Amino acid sequence: MAVDMRLPTVRKQLTDSLFSGTEGKHLVVPGDVITSDTGFMRGHGTYMDEEKLTASVAGEVERVNKLICVRPLKTRFNGEVGDVVVGRITEVQQKRWKVETNSRLDSVLLLSSVNLPGGELRRRSAEDELTMRHYLQEGDLISAEVQSVFSDGALSLHTRSLKYGKLGQGVLVQVSPSLVKRQKTHFHNLTCGASIILGNNGYVWLYPTPGHLDEEAGGYYTSMEPVPLSDREVISRLRNCLLALAAHKVLLYDTSVLYCYESSLSHQIKDILKPEIMEEIVMETRQRLEVQEG
User: Fold this and answer.
1) Which of 199, 172, 167 is nearest to 185 (CA)?
2) What is the rounded CA–CA span in Å between residue 164 and residue 211?
């Protein structure tokens, strides 16, 4: 019987250059006094205590003119119009679906905000309302875009583009929303043979790159053909790379994920999450990103 033995080793010291970007940031923990100057306005994540502005959350102090707020390092998703999200249907209601999107409240996807099969443009009828579960039912995963934000903070979603809709076979990885870098596009076909949707809400979807897109399905087509072993191995390796980057608080975007994937090729998939190998892979990824950014 094979036994996997792991002995303690002396780890290499992290170079100071990796942390040079954090020197100018003012980090605080709850209870820290930010300023005793009464000329500043109190923003999110702060409160007044004996005429001193004090932090109520752990995070980075941000100042805009006379307004001071603290942006928390770990928080629920606060959506903005145009954000790409990955969510799970939790409830089917009258003319709407409730979607869990890692925010404080369930998001809403209205029947009028989805594409009908075949891309028909018409008013939604009572028949459409009765067949809502044929489109999406409880437990289905979807990709969508934030259309608007209600007064109570709940999000209204839409899937009116063919790139959004029901998700088929793949792997869902959950990370902190603050680690997903905002970009022009969050849909990427990676050169390693898989595709990725980086949801602004911290839900990342990995799936085999589709050979063709069935436009007649209006975003509801999901292929149930068996996924080849090679594709499954690529997706598994990407999943472990995402967890390694998230554990070391590295921003997630297409370049960082691809560099991490390439750095991990010398290791087995199951070994990537071992602490010493994870640290080695992430350090190499950080150095390549630094070289690229100049």
Assistant:
1) 199
2) 17
This prediction's pTM: 0.81
Tell me: the pLDDT tens digits for 42-66? 998 899 988 899 999 998 898 888 8
Cα separation, 140 vs 5, in Å, equals 41
Element (H, E) at 71: strand 67-72
H/E run at residue 99: strand 96-100
Nearest alpha carbon to residue 239 among 190, 294, 178, 293: 190
Cα angle value 192/196/198 (rounded, 5°): 140
In a 10 Å sphere around its CB, with 0-12 CB exposed, 13-18 middle and 19+ buried, how is residue 134 labelled? Answer: exposed
Separation CA 185–CA 42 (nearest Å)? 34
User: Comparing 71-75, 120-124, 127-131, 171-175, which segment has the lowest mean pLDDT?
Assistant: 120-124
Tokens in use for 261?
Answer: 């994937």
